[in-house]
Model the fold of this input.
Amino acid sequence: STVFFAYLGFDAATTVAQEVKDPSRDLPVGIIGSLVVCTAFYVAVAAVMVGVVPYADYADVADPMALLAERMSQRWLAIFVSLAGVCGLGTVLLV
Done:
C-alpha cells in the first residue's frame, strides 16, 4: 500500500492533457519519465538504508527511516522524519 500511495500523484499529470501540444506523445513520456525517476530514487534510498542498517533489523519496525536516523545517532533527524511522515500521510488522505 505504501508504494501505491507513492505513485498516486501520477494521475495529476493526466489532468493537464488539454494544455499539452501533442498529448499522445508528451503524456506517456512525462508519466513514464517521472515513474522512472521516482523508482530510481526509491531504489537508491532503499539501498542506502540496507547499507547502513541490516535488513533484518527493519522487520518489526513501523518507522524504518527514523530507525535509520537513530542508528546514525541523529535523534533530531529521527524526530523530523517521524513528523514529516505524519504530515505526509495527512496530505495523502486529504487528496
Summary: The chain has a mean pLDDT of 82. The helical segments are 2-6, 11-14, 23-52, 64-71, 75-94.
